[in-house]
Structures are given as structure tokens and as C-alpha cells.
Amino acid sequence: MKNKDLRPRKPLFIYYIIVLVIIFVLNLLIMPTVREQSLVKTDYSTFLESVENGSVKKAEIRSDYIYYIDQKNGEETTCRTVRIEDPQLVDRLLAGGVAMEGVLTDRENLLMSLLMGYVIPIAVFILLGRYLSKRLMSSMGGAGGMMQFGKSNAKIYVKSTTGIKFSDVAGEDEAKDLLTEIVDYLHNPQKYKEIGASMPKGALLVGPPGTGKTLLAKAVAGEANVPFFSISGSEFVEMFVGMGAAKVRDLFKQANEKAPCIVFIDEIDTIGKKRDGAGFSGNDEREQTLNQLLTEMDGFDGSKGVVILAATNRPDSLDPALLRPGRFDRRIPVELPDQKGREEILRVHAKKIKISDSVRFEDIAKAAVGASGADLANIVNEAALRAVRDGRKFATQADFEESIEVVIAGYQKKNRVLSTKEKLIVAYHEIGHALVAAKQTESAPVHKITIIPRTSGALGYTMQVDEKEHFLMSKEELENKIATLTGGRAAEEVVFHTVTTGASNDIEQATKIARAMISRYGMSDEFDMVAMENVSNQYLGGDTSLACSADTQALLDKKVVELVRQQHEKAVKILTDNIGKLHELAKYLYDHETITGEEFMEILNSDAERIEMPEEAGRLMDNQMQ
Ligand code: ADP
Ligand code: MG
Ligand code: ZN
After folding, report:
1. Residues 493-552: pLDDT tens digits?
2. What is the per-residue pLDDT across 123-136, written as a single tens digit (0 to 9) for each?
3. What confidence score (pLDDT) does residue 36 get?
4. Whose CA is nearest to atom 6 of ligand 1?
5. What is the pLDDT confidence band of residue 577, given thresholds at 50, 70 and 90?
6. Atom nearest to 341 CA in ligand 1
7. 348 lines ligand 1 (CB under 6 A)
8. Which of 169, 215, 342 has most ligand 1 atoms within 8 Å of CB, for mutation?
9. Would the CB of 345 count as within 6 Å of ligand 1?
């Protein structure tokens, strides 16, 4: 919409008049009084007296007044007196040795004061007014002005500005392949046209947050030698109904003019949500925007070479109409990186920092299971920061290992002092996890156990690192995982015959696994292969919604409790059977605060099995547990 002529001139004009009046009044009333204040008003005879005394240094004669500087007792005062018709005035002044350099004609003065008093302030006001009104309008309705709704203000990226290439995106090979094809099409459309193939109009990047969707789109911009429009879904959301739709229209108009080009809509779920009958106010605007987007995507000619990229982490919430072939017909999954991907991402980011030769990216990648690209970038940066903190010039393996823990559990809380009793309980709790894990098959080896409190609130934790990545989990593995999670609490029960709040996170996780096993993975006899719950947004925390009757739900809950209880009992049994090792390991952890996986296994496999509770721990317990 080009509505330049509709700009509201009238109100602005009125503002100018108001400003003019204000300036006029200021000039008339205030300025003279300001000037007057520093003046001493004298009468003509006093003036003549001063001239005769020779104390007047300088005089300026105007049509009404004479301004002069009177120097009495070493003090200079500026005075004003009324000008009286006095033919001898000049003679008198000459006789008194008064400098008359400042005698100005009134006409010149008038010009100056006009300039100073009116023209300059008005000019300043006008410029200021223009600037402010422009800012106000652009904040209300896009570039240009209030009435110019619907300017899409998409940023145009061109190759040189972002500088991000596919080589900056590590892993995600499938996504890169699919996108490379699109870039290739834009460069050599002939190759595809010869055979009759047409490019997909749109490609949708889907995946969890921080996996590099936005980064991939920027890399496409960096690789393709065509204009790249980038806009975020939220920029379409506007105060007024119809503005979002107008913006979409404008965006596609611009894209058509610039074809071949790429349009990237980030976080498209903001405008692409499913249209539903039930809705509250404000839906109108969103629906109109979506409808406009659908229309535009149908309308343009794919062979012209406009490719729409979009990214979202909520594909399930998108309107099906948007996803049908002919619109976003190519779906590019950008999943959490696997072991190899993590290693590559670490390497890409580690290029930006100085590291020692001993850094083993493979091990770091192994320990960072489940980390997204953004997490890994963060881990690398934390490692560099830690190196600086320690006054080193490069980051070491230890820096990386610590920074994984920082990203998982927060910083070490050095000043939090646990009481001996608490520390002992935490030590037993963590060893409980580790021991249960170690005594079961199909369970990831213990990598590290620590009882140094963290800023996340964790008082300690047990890190298990799998040798190989798993993509499938068997029922037994899941059960063992639940047993391991209950191991902490089980140790508290076995040793101290009491329970603490320390297990809340374990309980949460164990419940989640148990529930999923029964309601979604079909791992119970009762429900066979029937889904009792649906995952509503798979990439964002995986919230579930129930899909069963209240009766079934009650049964489901019962089954979950049963499953967890079974595993809890198993954990208690493992710990009672290995009580000697539990004491030995807990004492070691209590003393050292951190155990590595190797140390743990060494103690566990040593023959010198002490059945007795370590003396110190026993004494402490007796003192404090009464
Ligand atoms: P999202 O998928 O949420 O759009 P981003 O693309 O914004 O994620 O990624 C955030 C940051 O994480 C990037 O700027 C980059 O530093 C890092 N990152 C994510 N994935 C990768 C990857 N595959 N390779 C390299 N860096 C990555
Ligand atoms: Mg993003
Ligand atoms: Zn625990």
C-alpha cells in the first residue's frame, strides 16, 4: 500500500502554529525580562555624571535606550538609561573617554534578533517535530508512516552481510543436503527445467530449540547469490486487524520484484497456528494473516524462483492447510545432534577459541548427551571463560568437562556449606544411584560423582555416560533406569532409615519414564498397544495430553505406582546386598567430594570388602541422627 498522500498534514500544521505562538510569547515576555534582570536602570543625569567622572568605559546608543558599562570601585555594571534628545551627547562621551564602538543601527539589530529569536528556534522545532513524528509513526505502523500499514520491513540479507556458510553449521547433513539443492536450483534453474522438475515452493525447518534452524537459514543466505528476505513471524502480529495481512502482501510483492530470491519466515508458528472454531478475540487478525499467507503462497509462480523457508519448533500446531503440498511441501527435520554431530559442532565452535592439544572432543561429546547445538556453543564458551578465570591462555580438557557440568547443573556453589550430616546423606544418596546403576546390566557406566553443591540447587549428582549412543530403549533398560533413579532415596532409607527432600528430581524423572512406558510405549500387559496419552509438542518439553476415560486413567496411575515401586524395591535389595561397598564408597566420596568413574569401579571391584560402616560416618550418624 502506497498511501503517502494520506499522511496527516493538518495536525502537524496546527502544531507548527502552536509552536510559533509559543515562541512569539516567549520573545515578547520572557526574553526581554531575562535581559533586563542583569541591567541596572539609571536615569539620564546619573549617566551624565558617570560620563563626567570617567567611569563609563563603553556605551551603545540605540534609538530608545543607551546601554553602557559603568566601572565603579573596580566593579563593572551594565546599565541602561533612557535616551533623551541631547545634541551634545557625542561631545560629552568623547570628553569622558567613552568607547563608542558598539553603536549599531537599529535596523541591523532587528534583523539579528529576528534571526535569533524566530527563524532558528522555529527551524529547530520543525526538524525536531519531523524527527519525532517519524519515529512515532514508524513504531506504530512500519516504515514510512502511520497510514502506511503493511510495510513488511523484512530485512534483506545478502551474501556478504551475514558471512555464515554451510561450513559453519556442523552436523545436520541431511538438512544441509536438502537446502543445498534449493540453493543450486536458484543458481541453475535450467538444469532442473530441462527435465521438467520444479522446486518445492516452500521448505519448513522443524526441530527443537537451539538446533540451528535459524543458523541454517542464514547459511542459505550466505551461500545463495540471491536476495534473502528474513522476517520473524511475530513481526506480522499487529495491533490492528488487517495489518498483518497487509504486511504479508507487501513481503510477497517485494519478493516477486526481486525474484529469484529466498524468503525466510522464522518462528512461523506465531502466524501459522491451526485455525479453530473456538477462539477468543484477536483471532481474527491472526486468521487474516494466515489466510493471506496461504493465498500468497498459492499465487506466486514457483518457476520464477521465489523459495519460502520457514522455521518452527511447534510443527504440530501449524495449520494443515499450510503444510499441504504446493505450500510448505518439503519438511526438513533439524534434530538434536548425535554423537558425531555433537563432536563436529564442538569442533566448529572450538575454532573460535584457543585450546590445548590434549582436548578430546569425542569424550566431551559423549558426556554431553542430549545437548543441542546452542548448548554445545555455550559449553565451548564456558570452557574458554573458565580458562581465563584461571589465568590460562588456552582451554583444557578439564575446562570442557567442568563446563558441561556448568551447563547441566549450574556453577559450583563454593560458599554453600553443608552440615556434616547433610553432606553424609548426599554422599550416600549419590553412591546409591551409582551403585544401583553399576550392579545392573544394561545401564550406562558411571562417569563421575560429585557432592559439590551447584547453583541449580543440586547438592550432588551422578553422571553416567554411555559408550555408544542409543536410539532404541528396551523395557529392561527403562526399568533399570527407574531403579537407578530410585537408588538415591533407597540408600537414604537403607542407611539412615529416613527420607529427605533430596530425591524430588529423581522422583519426577522416574515418574515420567514409568508413565511413558505404560501410556505410550505399550510396555504393560493391561493396555497392550494402546496409546493412553498423546504428545502435544514433541520438541518443547513433550507435554502430553490424556486420551482415555477416567476409569482407565485411574488404572494407569495405579500401574505407574506399581512399576516404580517394583524398581524401588529392587534398588533397596541391591543396596542391602552390597552394603559394605555402599559404606566404603560413600566414605570415599564424603572425603574427596568427587569420584571419577575409574576410581569408582576400582573401589567397587577391590576385594578388601569392609562390611562395617566407616568409623567416622558411624560416629557422625550416631551423634546427629538421634
Ligand atoms: P534455532 O534452531 O532455535 O533457531 P539457532 O539457529 O538460533 O537455533 O542456533 C543458536 C546457536 O546455536 C547458533 O547461533 C549456533 O551458535 C549454535 N548452533 C546450533 N546448531 C548448530 C550447528 N549445527 N552447528 C554449529 N552451531 C550451531
Ligand atoms: Mg530460531
Ligand atoms: Zn538423586
Report:
1. 999 998 999 899 899 999 999 999 999 999 988 888 888 888 877 777 777 888 888 898
2. 888 888 888 887 77
3. 59
4. 212
5. very high
6. 23
7. yes
8. 215
9. yes
588 and 603 in contact (C-beta within 8 Å)?
yes
Say if 415 falls within a structural domain: no
Determine the residue of 168, 211, 338 to mutate for testing ligand 1's pocket, defined as the one with the most ligand atoms within 8 A of the Cβ atom: 211
Rounded distance from Cα 209 to ligand 2 centre (Å):
7
Residues 240 and 196 in one domain: yes
Q: Please, are residues 381 and 480 in contact by the beta-carbon 8 Å criterion?
A: no
Ligand 3: centre distance to CA 607 (Å): 27
What cell numbers appear for 413 in the block?
Answer: 556453589
Indicate whether residue 208 lines ligand 1 (CB < 6 A).
no
Q: Which of 76, 40, 81 is nearest to 60 (CA)?
A: 81
Q: Which domain holds residue 266?
A: 155-333
Using a 10 angstrom Cβ sphere, with 0-12 exposed, 13-18 middle and 19 or more buried, the burial of residue 350 is buried
β-bridge pairing 306-312 and 261-266: parallel
Cell numbers of 216, please? 541454517
C-alpha cell at 428: 550416600
Instruction: Indicate whether residue 374 lines ligand 1 (CB < 6 A).
Output: yes
Does residue 135 share a domain with residue 22?
yes
The verdict on the CB of residue 382 being under 6 Å from ligand 1 is no
Query: Looking at residue 368, what DSSP letter applies?
Result: T
Taking the centre of ligand 3 as the mean of its atom positions, its distance from the CA of residue 567, in whole angstroms, is 15
My answer on whether 83 and 134 are in the same domain is no
Whole-angstrom Cα distance, residue 334 to residue 203? 12
With CA atoms as reference, report the closest residue to 344 among 106, 593, 555, 167: 167
**Cross-sheet strand order for the sheet of 40-42:** 40-42, 75-82, 65-72, 56-61
Whether residue 34 is contained in a domain is answered as no
Task: Enumerate the active-site residues.
Answer: 430
Domain C-terminal end among 333, 364, 398: 333
